[in-house]
Amino acid sequence: MGKAATGLPSPPVSTALPPRGNPLSAPLAAIDIGSDRVQMLVAHVEDEGIDPLLRAATITGLADGVEQTGMMDERRVELTAMAVAQMVEDAREAGAVRLSVACTEPVRSVVNADELLDRIAQLAGTLPRVLSELDEARLSFRGIMSGPPGLPDGLIAIDPGVTRSVLLGARDRRLWWSTTLPAGLNHLAERFELGDPPSLDALYEISTEVERLAIPLAERHPSDFAVASGPLASALGRLDDDVRLDAHRTEDLFETVTATPAEEICERAEIASARAALLGPVAAVIDGVRRAYRLQAVEIVEAGLREGLLLDAAGA
After folding, report:
1. Same-domain pairing of 109 and 189
2. 286: which residues sit within 8 A by CB, 6+ positions away?
3. Is 70 found in the same domain as 166?
4. Do 191 and 274 fall within a single domain?
5. How many structural domains are present in the chain?
């Protein structure tokens, strides 16, 4: 059941860095600690939008094994903390005067979250904020709307995730509703017994199931434009440098992920090896939503949570 978004997100924890030059025009930095990677964006935030200066990403596989144990692996906790510390230093070198660090899944759901937060505080000198699902949705949507020019009002955004797939909807260019589909990628992989690589039949079955789940949403919240965002959607776009997913493009992607060695997929999509088998289901989830809304295509956008964190920090 979807839930209307109300109220304003509480501001993410941010750390003031030593100013360099004119602080009014100095860049800001945002670091996003997710299930698969740590990502950073350093940018100027102006009235006309976000002007990126530096992007960085480190694959950490932080969520690997979490579903089985409920805990983050100690080695991946250390790798993640070291990646954050390096990015904080890089942000300083780039002249950033304020830094926002935020965690999403799996940090908000594991029993040993404090181990990661404490280690980041020790190594990087900043304490990340663990975003609630609602805060993540609001900030991500705000970032999406700052992305490609001309995004229409009333669009929907799809974020296929390892543990959950989220749909967001807009009104007056603001987040109006959000909901979680019971279509997390790990759940789908188990339910449809996906192999590595997955079979074409299984991917089409996933698309059909997601279409069935999304039809009531399409009837309740109609839209004629959709984007896909989030780290795995972005990885899908990198797989073949194409950001527009229509029926023919999805068919091509299905054939690619079922016939290409996992090592090559990891290299092309810039993802951890444990995520290679999930790109087929990512495409299937996006395709299922596209079909439910009877859209010709869904556009993959890079903008999202980090851009939202920057806009929030700037008070824009």
Report:
1. no
2. 158, 160, 228, 233, 236, 245, 250, 298
3. no
4. yes
5. 2
Q: Say if 145 falls within a structural domain.
A: no
Name the residue range of residue 47's domain: 3-134
Indicate if 111 and 186 belong to the same structural domain: no
192 and 287 fall within a common domain: yes
* Cα distance between residue 14 and residue 45, in whole Å: 15
Q: Select from 266, 260, 210, 264 the least CA-distant residue to 235.
A: 266
Q: What would the pLDDT profile of 172-219 be if each residue is shown by its tens digit?
A: 888 999 999 988 888 898 899 888 788 999 999 999 999 999 999 999
Domain match, 170 and 199 both: yes
Mean of pLDDT values over 57-84: 91
Distance, CA of 292 to CA of 222 (rounded, Å): 10
